[in-house]
Amino acid sequence: MDRRAYLRTTGAALAVGSAGCLDAFGGGLDDEDYDIGMSANAFLPEEYEIATGETVVWGNNGSRGHTVTAYESSLPEGAAFFASGDRESTDAAREAWHDTGEGDLAPGQTFSHTFEVAGEYEYFCVPHEQGGMVGTIVVTE
Which residue from 61, 73, 97, 124 lies 20 to 30 Å from 81 (Cα-Cα)? Predict the structure, then answer.
């Protein structure tokens, strides 16, 4: 079964319960357009599991801009850093967002990253980190 089809099927209750939160202001994305949604202050789901070599797509279907920024210090050994805005480090991504808004995903936009190394990847949204907008990608062999 296709991974996205499986998640749509098994996550139907979550999707129904959170659909109003994610599309209340018309971000314009369909559930099939992303794996992880962005609400006002949360990534939905907060934890997401994939296999090595798979790509995760984050989609902003809310009403506010968000970023996707890895915590560089917690990346598995040998793993590539990732951030919307294509910065090379957590500090650079924070600075770029604070200086110019770079890395901001407006409603309706997506960001994707392919995970090649197994392990846990913690990430956050720069402007909403203090509000608890953090997530984890679990990559298995």
Answer: 61
Classify domain 3-140 by CATH number.
2.60.40.420
Q: What is the mean pLDDT of residues 20-40?
A: 74
What is the distance between the alpha carbons of residues 43 and 68, in angstroms, rounded to a whole number?
10
pLDDT tens-digit map of 106-132: 999 999 999 999 999 999 999 999 999
* Both structure tokens of 99: 């200086």
Distance CA 97, CA 94 (A): 5
Transcribe 59-77 into DSSP letters.
E--SSS-B--EE-GGGSPT
55: β partners: 114
Q: How many other β-carbons are positioned within 10 Å of the β-carbon of residue 83?
A: 25
Domain parsing of the chain, residue ranges: 3-140
